[in-house]
Specification:
Blueprint lengths: L14 H10 L1 H12 L2 E4 L7 E4 L2 H12 L12 H4 L9 H21 L1 H12 L7 E3 L1 H17 L5 H10 L23 H5 L1 H14 L5 H4 L10 H28 L2 H13 L2 H18 L5 E5 L4 E3 L2 E3 L4 E5 H5 L45 H18 E5 L7 E4 L2 E4 L4 E6 L1
Parallel strand pairs: 2-7
Antiparallel strand pairs: 1-2, 3-11, 4-7, 5-6, 8-11, 9-10
Helix pairs in contact: 1-2, 5-16, 6-7, 6-16, 7-12, 8-10, 10-12, 12-14, 12-16, 13-14, 14-16
């Protein structure tokens, strides 16, 4: 007689308590599930659909392959449909997704290198105006900087009516509307950008203005693709602006916070700054960014919907099951990363130049994995490294206390709990 598949173990908390923990302390909840049940457990956040959380890289690698081979599996992104549009690579499925991705990935990831000198100069001017003489929450400054770097890549300038309109609109959702309280409400997950969605017409007008005003040869022009291309420039531009700038801003805030609280890494940065070896400094800061994204992945859980039955560490899951690939837990696995709580940029010394770790292993997945991996992953790292380089060349980082900041939910991301509270001491 065939043995019945074993049920995925569940947390010893009511769905209401799980919902509250998922809204307020998501990383602690993930750690509790891993500590209790190992490679897989069931998360039931209130009345929302149950989610099977995968905690190990082997399962993650298999899940990425199973859900992404045909360009499907990311139905959770549909919550963004009203903002990014139906042809966005985020919500497109199947052949449409694959075609759009092939068109966009090389274009977007070329921006950091193509416009590198311009972005570095812009970053240097921006950080020169950051406050000194006291500790200040730098996350809002990171948001402004990364948005300006993105706008420069898209338009050839971070000034003018189009840039100002986008800057005002995307800043709407950075306060109370992005708080964890919205995610503690029972029912379907809330829309990540509600205020922006409410001003949809203004957002569309600003996007079209960007397309009209962009300087020849810059990103907005390139996003139009060829006449044979798929999708529409408006949807692509919305996708890049909405999903690109804030995740990069949060990654920059974490990189600053992590470096400020890592004496050994900070000492190495100081040595390289004083030596004047800028190429070596940039390379080391690249490793700092990779290690920061390991310790503090901006999105701690990546969701996929299974398109066929799946073996999750011995638990047989049916087609249609939603799985959550826990980047936070995989990045803190001591088998993959000995002493995971220590900040050690040298872990990534084997990564060549300014490239990224191989995605196929699913052991470094801050940008997801499989065919739905973030198509702007390299550009995002380039932006974060550019901002960090401009900062350390001008200032020494002074942390607030010896203990780092706890992760805090802000919409779908986790941010430094004190807002990246760091002092900047001019050199």
């Amino acid at each position: 007689m065939a043995q019945r598949p074993q049920a995925v173990p569940e947390l010893p908390l009511s769905p209401r308590l799980q919902l509250h923990a998922w809204a307020h302390t998501p990383t602690a909840l993930l750690e509790q599930g891993r500590d209790l049940h190992g490679p897989a457990f069931m998360l039931r956040a209130g009345a929302r659909d149950p989610l099977v959380v995968l905690t190990e890289s082997g399962c993650a690698r298999a899940a990425f392959r199973q859900t992404g081979a045909d360009g499907t599996g990311a139905e959770a992104n549909d919550v963004l449909l009203s903002l990014v549009g139906p042809s966005s690579v985020l919500v497109a499925q199947g052949a449409d997704h694959r075609a759009r991705r092939r068109e966009l990935r090389p274009v977007v990831n070329s921006w950091g290198r193509t416009y590198g000198e311009e972005l570095a100069a812009l970053a240097g001017r921006a950080v020169a105006g950051w406050p000194t003489g006291r500790r200040v929450a730098l996350h809002p400054y990171c948001q402004r900087l990364t948005l300006d770097l993105l706008l420069r890549s898209l338009l050839g300038t971070a000034d003018g009516p189009a840039a100002e309109a986008l800057r005002d609109l995307v800043g709407l959702d950075l306060a109370a509307s992005r708080s964890a309280e919205r995610f503690a409400v029972d029912g379907p997950p809330p829309e990540p950008w509600p205020l922006l969605a409410a001003r949809h017409a203004e957002f569309d007008a600003a996007l079209h203005q960007m397309l009209a005003e962009g300087r020849p040869g810059y990103g907005a022009e390139q996003l139009g693709g060829t006449p044979q291309g798929t999708g529409c420039p408006r949807d692509t531009l919305a996708t890049v602006v909405i999903t690109g700038y804030e995740t990069a801003a949060t990654a920059l805030a974490w990189a600053i916070e992590r470096l400020a609280h890592a004496p050994e890494a900070a000492s190495e940065v100081e040595r390289l700054v004083r030596s004047g070896r800028r190429t070596e400094l940039e390379r080391y800061l690249h490793l700092v960014v990779l290690e920061s994204l390991r310790q503090r992945p901006v999105i701690p859980l990546l969701t996929r919907r299974l398109t066929e039955p799946f073996d999750a560490a011995g638990y047989w899951l049916e087609e249609g099951t939603e799985v959550g690939i826990a980047a936070w837990l995989i990045h803190h696995d001591p088998v993959l990363y000995p002493q995971p709580a220590r900040f050690i940029p040298e872990r990534f010394e084997s990564v060549p130049g300014l490239e990224l770790p191989r995605a196929a292993n699913a052991d470094w997945i801050p940008f997801g994995g499989g065919t739905r991996r973030c198509l702007g992953d390299r550009f995002a790292v380039d932006v974060v490294r550019t901002g960090l380089l401009a900062l350390v060349e001008r200032y020494t980082l002074v942390p607030e206390g010896e203990v780092g900041e706890p992760p805090l939910r802000q919409s779908i991301t986790i941010t430094p709990g004190a807002g990246c509270l760091v002092g900047l001491q001019p050199r």
